[in-house]
Amino acid sequence: MSDNADIDYAELANRIRGWALALGFQATGISDADLGQHEARLEAWLGENRHGSMEWMARHGRKRSRPGELLPGTRRIISVRMDYLPEPAADSWSVMADGRLGFVSRYALGRDYHKLLRKRLQQLADRIRKAIGDFGYRAFVDSAPVMEKPLAAQAGLGWQGKHTNLLHQKTGSWFFLGELFTDLPLPVDEAGQDHCGSCRRCIDACPTGAITGPYRLDARKCISYLTIEHDGPIPERYRRAMGNRIYGCDDCQLVCPWNKFARPSEQTDFHPRHGLDQAELIELFAWSEADFLDRMAGSAIRRIGHERWLRNLAVALGNAPKSSAAVTALKARQDHPSALVREHVNWALAHQSGKARHQ
């Protein structure tokens, strides 16, 4: 455990912010490891099964709300923010309004953020080690039982909005978070203050009613969960509401008034690849598994696999404007080896033909 009396930890904290900024992080904050106020809320959420099939959310017990159990010796968490809003991307609302196109959440249009942020966090740790010598640490980027949003809020990087995403008054919510758990006794920052007020735009805008109330999210209804984390059939009651959203959903962020202050990312890695910001559904549905794996190499989308990719696209094609081209594309997958794909294709064909039962 690092506690060197010769180190000026206040000065070190300021240097860490400077190093993080030079590494491409837009903000840095420091918090202690106490998440006691969030533990009961997390356990209640899990107890209500609002995490759906994300069993990994409960697998690690209280390590998620007790950083010191996840990494013994943890005294402080350095939280960092990296903006990802891709400046050259097609307008989100315009894409969603065109049923022939597939909408991909803005965070996934470019390269996978996990590796990029983790590499930068490691570089930050290397800079700290070079300045003070060895210390205990571990970097996390959405890859372990870490309550990244409450930690970032405690570190002053913003507050959790009514949609449960982290918000900041000057930058909105279009950013990634990463953490460096450390055994350094650094001074902590003042926690962020809630500025949602009486606004409920995110609640009213959610296509499936997944935001069941202020600061309450039922993942089982969330389109991001259904298209990314959920590996089974998408419940029919949500398919029409999905529209042409084939990977994720940004509606709650798009309507948030604080996002008028969001700034485009300077990271070219987050710029759209393969035209995914406004790609045609029929073209994407025609990709073979080899095509999918090749074109999605280095993308967060690749981890859902080709089967779920086709499942999501089939739903979007079922919601698309009726056309012979859409029917032809769907029929080409009617005999797909996957029962999951076949079921969603048949649902889509029923809607394309106008023979679907009312939902």
Automatic annotation (TrEMBL):
One of its GO terms (biological process) is tRNA queuosine(34) biosynthetic process. [4Fe-4S] cluster 1 binds at residues 196, 199, 202, 256. Its main location: cytoplasm. InterPro entries: 4Fe4S_Fe-S-bd, 4Fe4S_Fe_S_CS, QueG, QueG_DUF1730. It is found in: Cytoplasm. Binds 2 [4Fe-4S] clusters per monomer. [4Fe-4S] cluster 2 binds at residues 206, 222, 249, 252. Cob(II)alamin binds at residues 64, 142, 166, 177, 224, 249-250. Residues 184-216 form the 4Fe-4S ferredoxin-type domain. Keywords: 4Fe-4S, Cobalamin, Cobalt, Cytoplasm, Iron, Iron-sulfur, Metal-binding, Oxidoreductase, Queuosine biosynthesis, tRNA processing. The active site is at 142 (proton donor). GO terms for cellular component: cytoplasm. The keyword Oxidoreductase applies. It catalyses: epoxyqueuosine(34) in tRNA + AH2 = queuosine(34) in tRNA + A + H2O. Pathway: tRNA modification; tRNA-queuosine biosynthesis. Its EC number is 1.17.99.6. It holds the Pfam family Fer4_16. Its cofactor is cob(II)alamin; [4Fe-4S] cluster. GO terms for molecular function: 4 iron, 4 sulfur cluster binding; cobalamin binding; epoxyqueuosine reductase activity; metal ion binding. It is an enzyme of class 1 (oxidoreductase). Catalyzes the conversion of epoxyqueuosine (oQ) to queuosine (Q), which is a hypermodified base found in the wobble positions of tRNA(Asp), tRNA(Asn), tRNA(His) and tRNA(Tyr). Belongs to the QueG family. HAMAP family: QueG (MF_00916). Monomer. This is Epoxyqueuosine reductase.
